[in-house]
Amino acid sequence: MGSRMRQSLKCGIASLLAIGLVTGTVSAAIAAPHEMGTPRIVNGEDSAPGDLPFLVALLDAYDFEDNGAFEAQFCGGALTTPTTVVTAAHCVVDDETGAVTPPEDVLVGFTRNLNAPNVRIGGVSAIQVHPSYDSEEVTFDIAVLTLAEPVLDIAPILPMRPTDTPSLTAAGALAKVAGWGKLSATKDNYPDSFKVGRLLIFPNESCGGGSKFIIGGITFDGFGKDAAATESMLCAAGVTANQKIIDSCQGDSGGPLVGGDGAAMRLIGLVSWGEDCAITKPGVYT
Whole-prediction pTM value? Predict the structure, then answer.
């Protein structure tokens, strides 16, 4: 497995409700599996102005100062309250030392196009990683960033409630993932504006039970139970009309997996890891 993070900082669901910090309550977050790979959206669609305004880009503060938002982006995240962004823990934890990135080293970009002039930037005042996060097992791969200033003009995405879980995470349920990750598993080309991938949720037995799952005529292989714990994570993938696999990839880590539409749209997971990008194994989400 590999994380789906675009780069390391140079300074270096059911429930997202469960982290408490997302909504102000205490609960237990979803765990992610063992091996990680950095993801982005392969074979996704172009985004349009106004799409998924809660999607944010995490930026290396030092790289941003020198090279701008496009070069500084390393992960995604989701605005869940006016003062909090949820992302993957592996985006902000050094996998060798276990040290949490200092908040002053991370900026949050509120933009669709990373190469747009005058990208809106916010600072981070605190970073809290789930206390049970394990970088080797990639369990509880969730962190919460507290913004230095509240964002009052962007509607946050609400995490799914326990009553939403059966319908939003059912096998075959529709979901979307978005990010600025790689456009191809074999080339290091990244989009200016984020891409959106339309996915289907895998049944548990085709995620951590090793069973196969067919989407659009393509057969996907599930992970074994030792790699993917279905009580704490989701698997998802998609297929285009011409049978190309849709998946997150490097650069998409920490970005939102959402289910539902319109006012009923909910955050159901975060990009965590994958064996590779756009192969016949699904992406894995906390």
Answer: 0.86
